[in-house]
């Protein structure tokens, strides 16, 4: 069941403090990296909701993010909606797409689920890639950032935009925690652990999965809107399956189903990529090797590893306290 | 008013560089793909650029420092790297940009920040048309420029009906559009057109069958890189070459990968702004130096890098060393280089250069390019570019 | 657009199908036996193409055609000992991610070894030129691909149906634990099947090299079509791989002719439909 343990809360507070500090202290390059991390963190929170807590390993979250970005762009450029309305539209649209995909895929398990979501993601990619109205491979330019000048904030500066993304991430974390704590989130974890039992308890499994996938899609849509506003330009590459793959990598790197871990993973991944690509053009090689090592280590990512160690330590301590002179027993 | 505003903005950006300018060191950001599908192009452009700086640097007082960044051929990455070069590395000038997608993504940023950009490949027509900027100078080519004269020339060779084929993206459509414009104006007839999914097509069989059934006299194609190799080989293997000669934009049989195409490329006639066999002293010197440096024949990509570097040297020799000054000087550049007389059109900041029609033929050391015709240089129409009225 | 045109396109579709079959059969049998999806299968195909191009450039085409599958099978052996063996008990997600990482490693290794410039090799003399069938002239080499694919399909079907090793593989696909209890050395069987599957990917690369360009990202390009074939056909099934390949080849080819611009969307829609209606594919290996 989902619980925000002191360790998780503490890490979240630490990350928030670090991000705020970085937003005020770093120069341009640091702010760009921070923004990249924040947007990626939003995407992987969405993915962890379904993959970590629902056991639905999705290979279409990159495509969902891309759908959000394109929905935002089209709402602004073609429908002429004002920026805030376009953002709302994009998030709702992505949520709807996520709900449909989730509902259709709800019956599939394991590797088949991965494949179906991959198929849907690629379908979206091909559609965007081959439709002239979306600008095809050349993408769409001229996207707007919201105007916060009434508050005295100019979002066209890197610092303000990074803080804006940070605010979005905080909202997303709160929303995700609320969702996972709700009845819906508990039902989802129940399904992950034993689908048959939940069915026997009278739960409409597919509906729960679809609802969660839809909510996760909305969060991915937020990431898409921010990505579009960050670059102010979008291209079909946003929807490519490798983006979904990378998002999954980040979740694993940080710790699947640990809620906080994926954010840690996003930090580690972006920093790692920047550092390695500054040294060699073959950075894919290094990142690939690290990924293989992490997955093969069988630890549940960086945060999962720490959490596991700490909980074992405290369990041992508790055991020792409970039985000071007794037999050593297995915690 | 607008002009003044840009000037003020550019002045603000350049302000931090006053100290550097006094030292006469010009910091160049090379924005190229070093990974992804265009990595080979990025490497060729960089080799040409470095050779160009090395060759021509004595002509100016300034010295140069180079920072390289990898765009990965992804527009968002390209934009992030362009921002880094300008805001973090504080470069005086950016050179490079292979894909039109990346150029489209960075255009507004470059224009707004007032950093001169020397485009060393990307050929999208808008960049020197409706999207033109006093800060963007193109030393490579525009899609239309390479293909339009070929339409005229091909019709003069007695070809009445053509079938066109190209990848389905902006560059593909502009290349074919330029050709069709010239060909139709000359009185030719386009009997069929096919656009294949960009970078998704490996098997051209289905499309070639359609071309064959179209009853055209010839096929006019644009492909580049891996797709060009597959296309040229498959065109030959289906036996179409004998019945319908293959013509195209010269990237189809670029020296960079013509060896991989092998005999299938023999006899293909294409138009391009550069081939290594152009007969002039500047080109002879360039080819010899490039071969000594890399062991390869220079491609059109290498010459674009080489000329981009030379344009920068020529601009800095006027005394310009800051962003604003370099941008103004770059628009006036003109020299006799490997491609013949090469000049920037101040009305669009696009290059004006002759176009060479060449045939790929078997030579002593493998395939080589025989220049069939030199088509006179033509400046692109302004197409909505208003540089000449505001400047 | 007469009969000849459609015959021509049918041959094109068959040729594409057979190439995809060579790739997908290895992937699908490995899955059937080991429940392991190897996303790096496409990268092995690229390695095969590069090895073939290198050997063909120095020794000759036929030497390349033989060397490529052997080298890639060796590479498979190496991967098996280093990674796959340890990943057998992990869930599908861990396997997908390890082989996803492997894609990037192999991609960059091919770039380091062979560079970024595309390579190409010539069709061998014996298979150059064209012959006439049913009123259309068609390249001999493409017919060779069709024949090779069909021959390998027949050989594999025969081995699976008639030989002892085939019976062992079928037993393993059906129930690997039971097979192990019956005294079959399942681990060795896995290794053998994995190497053969990788070798076939290498063979596909070598066969494709003369008609396509050999580039570092060719493996990434072919991966998705191969996965689609395997999933449509049904994971683990030889007949499924053939059926999936034919469906993909014909939809892709005729889609490109009749509905240009929609061909690939059509395929994904088909895939989604198959997965919804028959989640285990059209010819699943197990009931």
Question: Could you give a short description of this structure?
Answer:
Chain A is mostly helical. Helix content of chain A is 73%, strand content 1%.
Structural commentary:
The complex is a heterotrimer of chains A (331), B (391) and C (287). Chain A has one domain (6-238). Chain A is built from 13 helices and two strands, in the order αααααβααααβαααα. Chain A has helices at residues 6-25, 28-51, 61-77, 83-105, 110-130, 158-181, 183-193, 195-200, 205-231, 241-254, 261-279, 283-296, 301-322, and strands at residues 140-141, 233-234. Chain A has a two-stranded antiparallel sheet with strand order 1-2. The longest helix of chain A has 27 residues, at 205-231. With 391 residues, chain B is an alpha/beta fold. Helix content of chain B is 43%, strand content 22%. Chain B has helices spanning 2-15, 18-22, 39-56, 75-88, 100-113, 143-156, 170-185, 205-213, 225-237, 240-243, 258-261, 281-294, 300-317, 323-330, 387-390, and strands at 25-32, 63-70, 93-96, 117-119, 136-138, 161-167, 189-196, 218-221, 246-249, 269-272, 334-337, 340-345, 350-352, 355-363, 366-375. Chain B starts with a helix and ends with a helix. Residues 1-23 of chain B have low confidence and may be disordered. By secondary structure, chain C is an all-alpha fold. Chain C has a single domain, classed as ABC transporter involved in vitamin B12 uptake, BtuC. In chain C, strands 1-2 form a two-stranded antiparallel ribbon. In chain C, β1 and β2 (136-139) form a beta hairpin. In chain C, α2 crosses α8 and α2 packs across α9 (218-233). The termini of chain C are far apart. The mean pLDDT of chain C is 89. The chains are: A mainly alpha (331), B alpha/beta (391), C mainly alpha (287). At the A-C interface, α5, α10 and α12 of A face α3, α4, α9 and α11 of C. Chain C: Pfam families: BPD_transp_2. Chain C: Belongs to the binding-protein-dependent transport system permease family. LivHM subfamily. Chain C: It comes from Rhodovulum euryhalinum.
